[in-house]
Amino acid sequence: MDTFHLDQQLVRRHFGRAAKSYEQHDVLQREVQAALLERLDFYTQTPQRVIDVGAGTGRGSALLKQRYAKAEVIAVDLALPMLRTAKQHSSWLKPFIRICAEATSLPLADHSVDVLHSNLCFQWIDDLPGLFGECVRVLKPGGLLAFSTFGPDTLKELRAAWAEADQQPHVSRFLDMHDVGDAMLNAGLRDPVLDVFRYTLTYSEPRKLLEELQGLGATNADRARERGLTGKSRYQRMLAAYEAMRVDERIPATWEVVTAHAWGPPVGQPRRGSDGGEIASFSIDSLRGSRRK
């Protein structure tokens, strides 16, 4: 597994600043959202509680409330300005709750969630054991986890262009589908199914892509990034390298999207420990009933 660490405070700050501009640039996010909602067809029960992790401006939360009108829908995001913006999508007829929290520390009771939905959020979390462990904690046995995230080929053209200018990380790195799948299994999630899709968006010039990334809040938050301003000469070298990739008078940008779903395990199902062994967890109450006198 590729090891890297994200600055979570910077992630929160970037998305907070992008709250007002996000929906001007979220064409891809809406497309991926539509495909992700199709995975919810696998869940054939009537959910009582649905959570949208990394809800952003709340478009997905509103769609979830529209689909599950009788359920309690909760929009969770680590950036408070995003949740303030999300209020515009929460109507008095179909309201959803907004909670500011991190995906690895959800303020919800154990086994209290029927459907956990997350659209293009998990790539901003580098602690996969903590992330999927929290998903297992809050999901009811048989509850559905459905999410999308970016894969390592995302923005490969921009990454290659920057490599022509210097050796510093200017583009966020993303984990491979196999690493994500392994982390899901290690956490104890049942029957994970993962698929990869590639989208290519085109722009009139590289600067338009950079403006879009900034408008989305999707800028580099790698802790190993270079601090300070990028020199003008290096920036110009990057632009020139990207211009050389122009196809049919347009600048391409690849987005590798991993879409997945899995099921909450039964209480007590073993999960893999860090040492390769298996760990099973039971509540004290369930053990009390089986103790011999």
From TrEMBL:
Pfam families: Methyltransf_11. GO terms for molecular function: carboxyl-O-methyltransferase activity; malonyl-CoA methyltransferase activity; S-adenosylmethionine-dependent methyltransferase activity. It is an enzyme of class 2 (transferase). Its EC number is 2.1.1.197. GO terms for biological process: biotin biosynthetic process; methylation. Residues 265-293 are annotated as: Disordered. SUPFAM superfamilies: S-adenosyl-L-methionine-dependent methyltransferases (SSF53335). Pathway: Cofactor biosynthesis; biotin biosynthesis. It catalyses: malonyl-[ACP] + S-adenosyl-L-methionine = malonyl-[ACP] methyl ester + S-adenosyl-L-homocysteine. Keywords: Biotin biosynthesis, Methyltransferase, S-adenosyl-L-methionine, Transferase. Residues 51-147 form the Methyltransferase type domain. It comes from the Bacteria. Belongs to the methyltransferase superfamily. Converts the free carboxyl group of a malonyl-thioester to its methyl ester by transfer of a methyl group from S-adenosyl-L-methionine (SAM). It allows to synthesize pimeloyl-ACP via the fatty acid synthetic pathway. HAMAP family: BioC. PANTHER family: ARGININE-HYDROXYLASE NDUFAF5, MITOCHONDRIAL. This is Malonyl-[acyl-carrier protein] O-methyltransferase. It comes from Rhodanobacter glycinis. The gene is bioC.
